[in-house]
Specification:
This protein has 170 residues and is of the alpha+beta class. The chain is 42% helix and 24% strand. The longest helix has 20 residues. Bound molecules: flavin mononucleotide.
Length: 170
């Protein structure tokens, strides 16, 4: 099985839409092209179908906390392809609401080619988080690894979201 990095094209965006729990409701063509999954293999599945094992769980805890507190999430994510390849993206995820503009229907994610400097910076942090997560059990380890991440960002006077945007746009 291959394990190559696939590079997103600079002019493309990968889009998906989920329900409130993260079950996939929509994917665009570029999602299928990069991931190697057919649309029929993705619709109705939980979004962790493309989770890469190098992504620490602590980052997803922060991800869900951010969304559930009504905020948009920006971040660097390594994703898994069906043939075991992987690709890095800079993802922007936001809530989408029903016709009343108030009732949460789910979430919407748009992913772009990730800035290589950001990939280098965050992949090193994610590695440390993974080691922390393997040393402890359950939710304690997630809280620890998430605290490691937020502390690192706070040391620079920024939130994770702000630091991610900073690395993507520099
Ligand atoms: C709109 C939306 C997009 C998501 N996109 C990704 C993604 O690209 N890659 C990923 O690993 N998880 C993504 N997730 C998070 C997954 O739902 C899941 O929380 C994560 O993969 C961690 O898996 P786990 O919950 O089994 O630990 C997304 C969630 C939502 C709501």
């Amino acid at each position: 099985m291959s394990n190559n990095e696939i590079k997103m094209l600079p002019d493309k965006i990968i889009i998906s839409k989920t329900d409130v729990k993260g079950k996939i409701l929509y994917v665009n063509k570029e999602f299928c092209r990069i991931s190697g999954f057919d649309r029929t293999e993705l619709i109705g599945e939980p979004h962790n179908i493309i989770r890469h094992k190098d992504m620490p769980r602590g980052i997803f805890r922060l991800f869900w906390q951010t969304l559930q507190s009504g905020n948009e999430f920006n971040g660097f994510v390594k994703n898994y392809c069906k043939n075991n390849d992987y690709y890095w993206v800079f993802a922007t995820v936001s809530p989408w609401f029903g016709a009343d503009g108030k009732t949460l229907q789910g979430y919407f994610s748009a992913r772009r080619l990730a800035n290589p400097e950001g990939v280098k910076f965050f992949s090193d942090i994610y590695k440390t988080m993974l080691v922390q997560e393997s040393g402890l059990s359950g939710s304690e380890s997630l809280n620890d690894s998430m605290a490691h991440l937020t502390q690192l960002c706070e040391n620079r006077g920024l939130s994770y979201d702000q630091l991610a945007v900073h690395y993507q746009t520099r």
